[in-house]
Amino acid sequence: MAKGFLPSPRGTNFEAKTTPVVVWSCIMASTGGLMFGYDVGISGGVTSMGGFLKKFYPGVYKRTQQTGLESDYYSNYCKYNNQWLQLFTSSLYLAALVATFFASYTTRKLGRRYSMLIAGIFFIVGVILNAGALDLAMLIVGRIALGCGVGFANQAVPLYLSEMAPTRIRGALNILFQLMVTFGILFANLVNYQTSKIEGGWGWRISLGLAGIPALLLTVGSLLVFDTPNSLIERGKLEEGKIVLKKIRGIEYVEPEFRELVEASRIAREVEHPFTHLLMTKNRPQLIIAVSLQIFQQFTGINAIMFYAPILFESLGFECNVSLYSAVITGGVNVLATIVSICVVDKIGRRKLLLEAGCQMFVAQIVIALVLRAKLSDNTNNLDNRSSILLIIMICIFVSAFAWSWGPLGYLIPSETFPLETRSAGQGVTVCMNMLFTFIIAQSFLSMLCAFKYGIFLFFSGWVVVMTIFTWFFVPETKNVPIEETTDKVWKQQWLCMICHEEMQDLTVYGV
C-alpha cells in the first residue's frame, strides 16, 4: 500500500495510506457514473434505430427512409429534427434538475451513502418502465425516473469520492466517476451496435433494459460501503466518523485530521440556511466559478456528440451501421483519454489541463466545420473516404481533449471548492446548473443542427474560446490541497476572492 503525507498549511501533516477500503468504496460509489454514462450513450443509438422510431416516432421514421428530396424537411441536417424525439433524451435531465433540490437535502441530512441508494432505486424503476414501454407516455415517465436517479447520483457521488480520498490522489479518485461515465457510454454504444442487428426491430428494448446492470451495481454497492467521515461528523456521529476515518486512512492516529473535520463540522452547524450562506459575498467567487464550469462544460458541444453520436454521424453522411460503429470508436477514445486524466490530474494540475484542452477542442471543431462546408450540402453527400476519416479523427481529437479536462474537472473542481458548511448546497447548485444546460442542449441540438448546419461546430468553438479565457483569469489551482483547507490556502489567495473580502471589510466599516 502506498504511504504518504498530506501537507497542511496549518503546519500539520495528515498521515494516510491508499487503503483497499478507500479504493473499494470509491469504485462502488462511482458506478453511479456508469449508470449516467449508459443513459447518455444509449439514447443516441436507440433513437437512430428503425424499430424504435417506427413505434414511437413514425413521422421521423418516414423521413429517414426517403433521401434525395429537395426540401429542408428531408435535408441531411434536418431529418431527425423533432421536438418529441429530443424530449426522449432531454426529459431525463429536466427531471435530474428538479431532483437535485431534494438530493441536496438528503445528502446533507441522511448522508452521501443513502443518497446513492435512493439514486439506485430510481434507476431500477426507470429501467423497468423504459424496457417495457408500450407508448410514448410510458417511455417519457421512465426517462423521468432515470433523471431523478441522475440528480441524486450526481449530487452525492462526487462529494463522496472527494471526501473519502487522501488528498494526494483526490483528483484521480474523483475522476473515477467520470471514467465510469465514459465506460457507460462505450458500453451503451457497443450494445446499440449489436442490438441494431436484431431482426424484428425490438433490439431497442434490450438496449434500454441492460441499463439495469449498472443500476443494480449502484444500489447494492451503496449498501456495502461506509459513509464519509465528513458526513458522519457533520451529522453528529463523532465516534463512528473517527472509526471510519481510521479505516480509510489505514492508521490508528488520525487526531489532527479528525480535529479539523470536527472544527469544520462545528462551523457548518452554525449555518442554518446553507443556500442563503452560499450567496454571501465571501462565497460568491466559488459559486460563480462552479456554476460557470457547468455552463461551459455543456457549451463545448460534447453532449451533443455523446447524446446523438449515431444520429450525428448519419446526418454527416455515414450509413446506419457505420454511424453506430463510429460512435463506438469515439466512446473508446473517451475512455482512454479519461484514464490519461486520472494519471496526470494530480501531477499536472487542473488549470493546465483545461487550458490545453481548450486549444485542442477549438482546432478540431474548426476543421470539422470546414470539411462539412466543403463536402456536405443539404440534400447531397460528397464525402469521400478521406473526408470521412478526417471527420472521425477530428471528432476523436475533440472528444479526447474533453475527456481529460472539462469532462472530469467539471465535477472535480466544484466538489473540492466549497467549505463543509456550504458543500452540499454548492454541489446542489452545481448539479442543478449542469442538468439545466444539459437539458437545453439535449432539447435543442437537433433543431440547431437543422438551422446552423455545419455552423453548429463554429458556434461551439466560439464558446470554447470564451471558456479558455475564463479559465486563464478565474480558475485557481487546487491540486494537493486538503479538502477542508482549500478556503484558506486557495480561495483567500484568489484575486476575485480578495476583492470580495475587501468589499466585506468596507461593509463592516460602514456598519452594514
UniProtKB/TrEMBL annotation:
Q: Which Pfam families match?
A: Sugar_tr
Provide the topology term for how it sits in the membrane: Multi-pass membrane protein
Compartments annotated for it: namely:
Membrane
* Sorted UniProt keywords: Membrane, Sugar transport, Symport, Transmembrane, Transmembrane helix, Transport
A GO CC annotation given for this chain: membrane
- Give the molecular function GO annotations: monosaccharide transmembrane transporter activity; symporter activity
Alphabetical list of InterPro entries matching this protein: MFS_dom (IPR020846), MFS_STP/MST-like_plant (IPR044778), MFS_sugar_transport-like (IPR005828), MFS_trans_sf (IPR036259), STP/PLT_plant (IPR045262), Sugar/inositol_transpt (IPR003663), Sugar_transporter_CS (IPR005829)
Q: What is its main location?
A: membrane
Residue ranges occupied by any Major facilitator superfamily (MFS) profile domain in the UniProt entry: 25-479
Transmembrane portions of the chain: 21-38, 84-102, 114-134, 140-161, 173-191, 203-226, 287-311, 323-345, 388-413, 425-446, 452-475
Q: Does the keyword Transmembrane helix apply?
A: yes
What does the sequence similarity comment in the record state about its family?
Belongs to the major facilitator superfamily. Phosphate:H(+) symporter (TC 2.A.1.9) family.
**Entries under PANTHER family matching the protein:** MAJOR FACILITATOR, SUGAR TRANSPORTER, MAJOR FACILITATOR SUPERFAMILY-RELATED (PTHR23500:SF531), SOLUTE CARRIER FAMILY 2, FACILITATED GLUCOSE TRANSPORTER (PTHR23500)
- Protein name, UniProt field: Sugar transport protein 13
Native source species: Heracleum sosnowskyi
